[in-house]
Amino acid sequence: MAYIDAKEIKKSYKVGQIEINALNGVDFTINKGEFVVILGPSGAGKTTLLNILGGMDELTSGSIIIDEVIINKKKEKTLTQYRREDVGFVFQNYNLIQNLTALENVELATQISPNAKRPKDVLKIVGLSDRMNNFPAQLSGGEQQRVAIARAVAKNPKLLLCDEPTGALDTNTGKTVLLLLKQLAKEEQMTVIVITHNQVIAELADRVIRIVNGKVFSQVTQEPKDIKD
Ligand code: ADP
Ligand code: ADP
């Protein structure tokens, strides 16, 4: 059985008298441990989809089954628990707390998670053992994003949702970050979903789901390219 099974997902927002259809009937399945990139132009509905998968937004219609549970019918209490324990989030702008060190940022996230890994172990996995006492401002963009990834992964989530994680990085740093996410998917048996509008980054994924106008435009399973330089 697929880990994620999304059927006919629709989402509309009411803005005054106008109804905006962000998602117009999206269907897909994703397997456990799969590394999927969601690609598409601005306004296509990618963030809306990610927010729904993360239990941060509600569907208008359709259904989403994750790990055999219908998440759109969960009560708010179990949805909070789902967000807290089962899902990790990574954002474009890292969202690190500036007056905490890298280690403290990761520790903070593990305090509310019953299944958490040891912060120092995770910082080692992302290659930052020697930078863990640095504050975010003392780290490069790529390093800050690796701290943010460590923070998300330290919760030991089953699902890692990343919204433009390479959007603020140059292409090579972005590739490094993407390959790290991919390695984590394989080694930690995490399902990883990454939003991007960068075609170069998308080429590193196992599968690309292209969203256009709130619909799945195409799905391609690919032999991922490796970094050449
Ligand atoms: P993407 O992430 O692909 O750029 P989004 O999911 O952010 O696309 O947005 C899809 C559409 O839904 C856009 O037309 C956007 O303006 C609209 N939208 C997103 N969030 C809201 C909201 N909270 N209220 C109203 N419209 C929204
Ligand atoms: P990038 O080109 O990847 O953004 P930088 O040139 O900003 O990287 O940084 C190169 C190295 O110097 C990185 O390892 C970064 O952590 C370190 N560094 C940058 N700024 C500071 C700082 N203010 N204090 C300590 N280390 C820093």
From TrEMBL:
UniProt protein name: ABC transporter, ATP-binding protein
GO MF annotation, one: transmembrane transporter activity
Coiled coil: none
Domain ABC transporter span(s) in chain numbering: 4-229
Gene3D superfamilies: P-loop containing nucleotide triphosphate hydrolases
Source domain of life: Bacteria
Family stated for the protein in its record: Belongs to the ABC transporter superfamily.
Native species: Alteracholeplasma palmae (strain ATCC 49389 / J233)
Keywords, alphabetical: ATP-binding, Nucleotide-binding, Transport
One cellular component (GO) term of this entry: membrane protein complex
A Pfam family hit: ABC_tran
